[in-house]
Amino acid sequence: MHSTKQKVSDAAAVAKEHVDILKAKAEEKAEKAMARTKEEKEIAYERRKAKEAEAKMKMHETKAQNAEEKLHGKHHGIYGHHEPVGAAAPPLGAVAPTYPLGGQHTGWKDPK
């Protein structure tokens, strides 16, 4: 189920990237039509390239998030991990130390 969801989400991210690239190309075309100098046309071209790169970056970020959701699951317990049903929450505040302090002493001493 997670694989299917990830594939659909990735496909949506790729489709959004293509739409953003097409928008950037249309904007570049409009800017070039209004441009009077060669430098203005070059600026329009550079803006398009920057927008395309941004669209690709967003697509890759979305794919990474989808992969992370697949790996870790979207819904976590209160403390960031899956908890078994009926699991007790850790106590809040000060916790009494476990004994024995300073290591594991059994009380048995070697008679030698």
Explained architecture:
The chain has helices at 2-34, 38-72. With 112 residues, the protein is mostly helical. The protein starts with a helix and ends in a 40-residue tail after the last helix. The mean pLDDT is 81. InterPro entries: LEA_1. Belongs to the LEA type 1 family. Residues 23-70 form a coiled coil. This is Late embryogenesis abundant protein.
**Discrete helix count:** 2
Query: What are the secondary-structure elements, in order, as H or E?
Result: HH
Kindly name the structural category.
mainly alpha
End-to-end gap: 65 Å
Mean pLDDT: 81
InterPro entries: LEA_1 (IPR005513)
Family: Belongs to the LEA type 1 family.
Keywords: Coiled coil
Protein name: Late embryogenesis abundant protein
Keywords:
0% strand; mainly alpha; coiled coil; 2 helices; 112 residues
